[in-house]
Amino acid sequence: MRQKVTVVGAGNVGATAAQRLVEKEIADVALVDILEGVPQGKSLDVMESAPVERFDAKLTGSNAYDATAGSEVVVITAGVPRKPGMSRDDLVTTNAGIVADVVRKVLPGSPDAILIVVSNPLDAMCEVARRVSGLARERVFGMAGILDSSRMRWFLAEALGVSVESTHAFVLGGHGDTMVPLPRYSTVGGVPVTELLPKERLDAIVQRTRDGGAEIVNLLKTSAWYAPSAAVVEMVDSVLRDKKKILPCAAYLQGEYGMKDVYLGVPVVLGRRGVERIIEITLAAEERAALEKSANAVRELFQILKV
Fold first, then answer.
1. Are 10 and 61 in contact (CB under 8 A)?
2. Active-site position among 88, 139, 175, 210
């Protein structure tokens, strides 16, 4: 019997994540959305591709949370999308109410679920889910660093003309303008990128990584969904298959990196129990200052929260 995942929000990110999960046969998926017919229609469309794509995992769409009962993982993508000119901070009040409502409705049927938050502003929405659910910090975390690192990896591969499989990038901090890409810990084929690219080129890649979401918003006039959905599927896969991958995720810090009571993107060991361990790396003074700046920006969002 396959494991079960719920994806709340049948927009571009949620629907694409659900599609990837069943196509890879990672789990059966319940796709939930308040818009009548949308999760049902998208689910039916995906399932009608199953004979061609050759997968037997099932995707079921619903407007009710009854369909989510028994889920091992709940992915929360619901919320108002970021529009051109809108900062992540502007999303806080509206999306906090949406995420809180989702958590209250999904947990009764899946009390043992792990919550993976994708809704923006990501770090603040993780805190909403943690407060409302009352779950241990290991079971409530967010998708951030995998996406930011993936963007940086692509920019590096493109700049060097190499396979993306050879690139590894490291991004810490909040999921937004204050994220902290770390070229010093980023490599290509095991070689530090600082030895392969001049500082000016690396600085430009770091800035493009920070602006990655805004760049796509300006082009599409809506938020990205292909890369975010791929990132969250990697997280779900590591949890359900207990792979214990070291992945950058938005985790709740309680002393790690000298930070407390704040969600920040850090490398974690991701397994069946969720965030099983937070990996602490040595930071230079400049890197630590940037991380503290990022933490302060996240705390400012926390102060806006009403839950």
1. yes
2. 175
